[in-house]
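User: Teach me something about this protein's shape.
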Amino acid sequence: MEVKGTAIASLSSFIKEKFKDDGYKKWIESLSTESKTVYTEVILPSNWYPLTVAYSEPLNIACDLFYKKNASSMKESGKYSAESALKGVYKVFIKPGSPDYIINKAPLILQAYFKPPLVTSQINGSTALIKISNFTGMTHVIEHRLIGWIEHALELSNCTGITVTAANSNANGIDFNLKWHSK
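Assistant: First, the predicted structure itself:
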């Protein structure tokens, strides 16, 4: 399983911005030698990196260091990532007032960040199901980062009353149940 450089660059930027230089230094020093190499060299946004070394371990360490091992707190880093991506390079996926548009694009978006997941989405009114399979290495920390990303994507689509819950989470995938109200 691999993760795109854009996702790991976003994590690095989030930690620098949120926890300043001292927190970033503490985080880097806590990483394994392999992970430290990824984050201390130039991160190429278009490159693919090993999921465990470049993403899972650094996310888990950030969760342990800054959020007292509370995985749900990692939603904040997912929201940060969505803000950067959906107001930047992926802004074409946001159509205010049309959450259906971004939900239908979920397979394309997730496959731009992770390789090789299988993603499907189904919409029924103001609810949706996003199913991710073939995602070897899914963890609770990644799950909550994705929940934050999805929540903020819906906020940027002008939705309110948003709930995103995970179901059937295991080491190979996850289902996300979404509910919202359109403005």
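Now, about its shape. The helical segments are 5-30, 33-40, 51-67, 75-86, 99-104, 106-113, 140-156. The longest strand covers residues 159-170. If you'd like, I can walk through any region in more detail.
User: That's plenty for now, thanks!
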